[in-house]
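Researcher: Before we compare anything, I want clean individual predictions. No alignment, no superposition, just each chain on its own. First chain goes here; please echo the sequence and then give the structure tokens.
Model: Echoing the first chain and its structure:
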Amino acid sequence: MNEAMLMIILRLVHILGGIFWAGTALLIAWFLIPAHRSTGAAGMTFISELMIRRKLRFYLTLTMILTILSGLGMYARLIAVSDGQWASTTMAKVLGFGAIAGIIAGGLGGFVSGSIAAKMAALGKTIQDSGQPPTETQNVQMETHQDTMQSVMRIVAVLLLIAVAAMASARYL
């Protein structure tokens, strides 16, 4: 495979993956989580269906990994073919800044929100297995997890907006 074809493939994976990742993060942070919270048990059923049974969480994680790896691959190739000179350009610095925002978003989205989601799922299962309505303590715990999840996802979404803005504008700066 020649250099041009490799860069085209990496660029397509990066752009298409970034569109899906950033768009989904924005949708989750500002629309799905608030809707889930306001609809109670029905919202929990919907989120479970979407994230677990429909495997959105898996596809989002896979897309995040492919987007980050393809971006790092392109960055490394541009440094390699320029004997390191490209790294000192404004374009490289802006892309690097966007990459850092994206990688931090990936860490928060993958690890922090994953941990919170696991806690919410375990609490939901405990409530469901009891056959009783949630206790006041369980309601408070679930609300705390939901507050944290919403905050983390909004930070992820903002970081991804920063990454997208950097990627879109780097060539022109």
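Researcher: Okay. Second chain, same rules.
Model: Second chain and its structure:
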Amino acid sequence: MRYEIMKNGIRVDGTLEKAIQHKIEKLTERLKRYHPEVAHLEMRLGQEEKNKEFECSLQLKAFRDSLHSQKSSPELRVAVDKSFEAMFKELETYRAKLNKNLAHG
């Protein structure tokens, strides 16, 4: 899986960098039965001006579809964790829908 991380001026320490890499590996593992070039993950980090919360937005372009998750939190690590958790759920829902369509197709 290809991926791109846009930090938008947000400083990411080594610990969080490793955690992000680990989560990307987990996502890649869940897509392992597909060709690596079919999936592209875009990760955007940002900070909301008005309430100073960190935001993590993920967009997974896979197959002919695009899956999204976006979470925010006062702590960057929590925003990243929540966003990846939401993406894992999105992916499971998507795969279940695909399998159901294949079974009835």
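Researcher: What stands out in the second chain?
Model: The two ends are 28 Å apart (CA to CA). Additionally, The CA atoms of residues 26 and 88 lie 9 Å apart.
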